[in-house]
Specification:
27% strand, D-Amino Acid Oxidase, Chain A, domain 2, single chain, binds flavin-adenine dinucleotide, FAD/NAD(P)-binding domain, eight-stranded mixed β-sheet
Length: 421
């Protein structure tokens, strides 16, 4: 089987590795639009459920070495008051760590492995897919180069479109989709070198619906001056969407006012923001779930299949789970067309649930509830506002749909639950 993978992002690279590991594909070729693989993006989360798959591909040690492995997840009000704190990742009993790392580090580790395993000649940059055609049991991908001129097409037995949020292949099958669905909320994301906060391996979520923030380290290493690389994401409600571009630079003055008095005994947010080495913006957008991903010998994967709000660490993780599921089905099903259909049957409902859950019950529902009950004021006694049981139920409810939650299997051992598999 000769497989064409469109897009060398997180989903495409995982798929190339998983197909190579399965031994089922005679040849795997990845075609990436960018003319060079530059270090793009900032912080990304890879949950334990996805780390299980990347570990099976032999990437765990390299990824752990370049990441942070959060051990607790803490929720604070906009006044910096602790509301809820839970062990997280391995500390919560998962057999695999939850990683937070720079997306360029994740991509570098994956790309090195892909080039080594499928052969550097099978990873081609500067090839933007412009459309696909199928006939006689074969699929052809058409390309243009960085100058917009047509390049020679590639032919294979199967094509998997991992071409991200602006997928050209998805557009071919769904030409009338129109603009993204905007939730009325934009993200400002940055990285800052500073002293470790809380345990040095904590994720902190602060504030409620109109202004929230997520802060976590991106590498566990501490430099000679005692600093760690800290990732932060500010989420602010607003009517106008910033461009849907992961690399859009942003200005401090566009969002700083909402956080200027967030100075707590455990974190000085204004200095964290002001100390950033880069700041990017991104809108909270997604698309309605599709009725179908697979069309004979072509299917969609990752953001091309199910763009979702970039929260809860799901964008990357769900692309990884898609790739693992697809590679497994191509190994076990005798007919590749039925394998693509089985992949859709398993992963489409699971990821659609997450798209919907992110809209209706985002991970900061605990803090929204507290904010609503206190009217945004400081509380004296947390128990008068919300119980630990209520917060536990909210936290675990989100984890369950996102596939993070541990499940007991019939042999009594536990493993991270996986949506749809
Ligand atoms: C440059 C960039 C920076 C990002 N930064 C972050 C970040 O900081 N934090 C975060 O959480 N998420 C980030 N993301 C998104 C995150 O990587 C994805 O949501 C998630 O990993 C899903 O993976 P994916 O493979 O579906 O898409 P992506 O990882 O987005 O990969 C899609 C790939 O397809 C390529 N491509 C697009 N169109 C074509 C085409 N027509 N032909 C060939 N190739 C094409 C793109 O260049 C890209 O390499 C970023 C994505 C990109 C592309």
């Amino acid at each position: 089987m000769d497989v064409i993978v469109i897009g060398g992002g997180i989903g495409g690279l995982t798929l190339a590795l998983a197909l190579h590991a399965s031994g089922k594909a005679r040849r795997v070729r990845v075609f990436e639009a960018a003319s060079e693989m530059r270090a793009l993006g900032i912080g990304i989360h890879i949950g334990s459920h996805a780390m299980k798959e990347l570990s099976a591909l032999g990437l765990e040690d390299a990824l752990v070495a370049t990441s942070s492995q959060p051990e607790d997840y803490a929720f604070f009000t906009r006044h910096g008051q602790l509301v809820y704190r839970r062990p997280f990742g391995k500390a919560a009993g998962h057999p695999y760590s939850h990683l937070t790392l720079l997306r360029p580090d994740l991509q570098r580790v994956m790309l090195t492995a892909v080039r080594e395993r499928i052969g550097a000649g099978n990873f081609t940059v500067g090839h933007r897919c412009t459309g696909v055609e199928q006939s006689g049991g074969r699929v052809t991908a058409n390309f243009s180069g960085p100058d917009g001129k047509a390049l020679p097409p590639a032919e294979g037995d199967l094509l998997v479109a991992c071409d991200g949020i602006h997928s050209a292949v998805r557009k071919q099958f769904y030409p009338g989709e129109g603009p993204f669905c905007f939730r009325g909320c934009n993200l400002w994301r940055g990285t800052t070198l500073r002293k470790p906060f809380l345990t040095g391996a904590s994720i902190a979520r602060i504030g409620a619906r109109n202004s929230t923030m997520l802060i976590n380290p991106l590498r566990s290493t501490i430099d000679a001056d005692g600093n760690q690389l800290i990732n932060w994401v500010c989420e602010i409600e607003g009517d106008v969407a910033v461009p849907v571009d992961w690399n859009k630079p942003a200005r401090v003055e566009d969002f700083f006012a909402n956080f200027q008095d967030w100075t707590f005994d455990w974190m000085d947010v204004p200095s964290l923001i002001r100390g950033a080495d880069q700041i990017l913006s991104y809108p909270m957008v997604d698309r309605d779930p599709l009725p179908r991903w697979s069309f004979e010998r072509v299917t969609l994967l990752g953001d091309a299949a199910h763009p979702m709000y970039p929260q809860g660490g799901n964008g990357g993780a769900q692309a990884i789970l898609d790739a693992a599921a697809l590679a497994l089905l191509l190994q076990t099903e005798s007919d590749p067309v039925s394998a693509l259909k089985a992949y859709e049957d398993s992963r489409l409902p699971a990821t659609s649930k997450i798209v919907v859950q992110n809209r209706t019950a985002p991970p900061n529902v605990i803090l929204d509830t507290v904010e609503q009950r206190t009217g945004g004021k400081r509380f004296d006694r947390l128990d008068d506002v919300i119980t630990q049981d209520e917060m536990k139920a909210i936290f675990e409810g989100y984890q369950k749909v996102a596939g993070y939650q541990m499940r007991q299997d019939t042999r009594g051992s536990s493993s991270p639950g996986q949506a749809g598999r």
